[in-house]
């Protein structure tokens, strides 16, 4: 007599049968020599693994994947890569983790790639899979794409004012200058032979 192979069982004692009973479709056993129909448990599909303690299927956690059915463990991504979701069922789902100042694009031609945070946002986390960057607070902005610190969020100056990037404050345009847009770093000089009557001019018509 030999043990029943995996995915079969024999629940009859003292018999002369030449083959074991097969588990039903979608079922499997963990070991050879199974003696009960109840030893046939659900086959976990790709993206999941069998928890051998609870005998239940669980999704592969982030950072792992499983391409095959009926496995008892997931495979870790290598090279510092991560997955965007749980239950990843292909090694192609392992993506490069994003650095500070970038986020993971999930749509368009950049899908699955790290792209710089747009102006007005930042990302201060390293090796992450965040799908958007953190916004600066209301009335604040950044000077460039790819900002990696909330400390780089600066006041967004109103028309008639400009940002002093050293002091990180908004200052009024000096006399003979104007600025008709918000969020600017400098003011425009009035045309030749034109002046303004005050600081903080916000339109060329005030020249």
The ordered H/E elements are EEEEEEEEEEEEEEEEEEEE
Instruction: Give the DSSP E fraction (strand runs of 2 or more residues).
Output: 15-25%
| CATH-level-4 superfamily name of the largest domain | Tumor Necrosis Factor Receptor, subunit A, domain 2
* Number of discrete helical segments: 0
Domain Tyrosine-protein kinase ephrin type A/B receptor-like: 1-40, 47-94, 110-153, 160-207
Protein name: Tyrosine-protein kinase ephrin type A/B receptor-like domain-containing protein
InterPro entries: Growth_fac_rcpt_cys_sf, SCUB_EGF-like_domain, Tyr-kin_ephrin_A/B_rcpt-like
Pfam families: Ephrin_rec_like
Q: Any overview of this molecule?
A:
With 207 residues, the chain is mostly beta strands. It has four domains: 1-43, no CATH class; 60-95, no CATH class; 97-155, Tumor Necrosis Factor Receptor, subunit A, domain 2 (Ribbon), CATH 2.10.50; 157-206, no CATH class. It has no helices and 20 strands. It has strands spanning 8-9, 21-22, 27-28, 41-42, 48-51, 56-59, 64-65, 75-76, 81-82, 95-96, 102-104, 114-116, 121-122, 134-135, 140-141, 154-155, 161-164, 169-172, 177-178, 188-189. The strands form ten sheets. Strands 1-2 form a two-stranded antiparallel ribbon. Strands 3-4 form a two-stranded antiparallel sheet. A two-stranded antiparallel sheet has the order 5-6. β5 (48-51) and β6 form a beta hairpin. The mean pLDDT is 91.
């Amino acid at each position: 007599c030999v043990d029943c192979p995996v995915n079969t069982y024999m629940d009859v004692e003292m018999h002369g049968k030449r083959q074991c009973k097969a588990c039903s479709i979608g079922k499997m056993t963990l070991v050879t020599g199974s003696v009960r129909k109840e030893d046939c448990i659900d086959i976990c599909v790709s993206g999941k693994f069998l928890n051998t303690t609870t005998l239940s299927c669980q999704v592969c956690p982030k950072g792992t994947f499983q391409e095959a059915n009926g496995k008892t463990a997931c495979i870790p991504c290598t090279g510092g890569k991560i997955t965007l979701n749980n239950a990843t069922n292909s090694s192609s789902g392992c993506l490069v983790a994003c650095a500070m100042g970038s986020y993971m694009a999930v749509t368009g031609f950049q899908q699955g790639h790290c792209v710089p945070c747009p102006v007005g946002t930042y990302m201060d986390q390293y090796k992450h899979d965040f799908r958007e960057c953190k916004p600066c607070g209301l009335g604040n902005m950044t000077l460039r794409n790819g900002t990696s610190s909330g400390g780089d969020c600066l006041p967004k100056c109103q028309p008639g004012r400009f940002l002093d990037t050293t002091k990180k404050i908004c200052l009024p345009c000096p006399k003979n200058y104007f600025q008709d847009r918000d969020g600017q770093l400098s003011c425009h000089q009035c045309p030749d032979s034109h002046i303004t009557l005050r600081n903080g001019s916000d339109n060329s018509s005030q020249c």
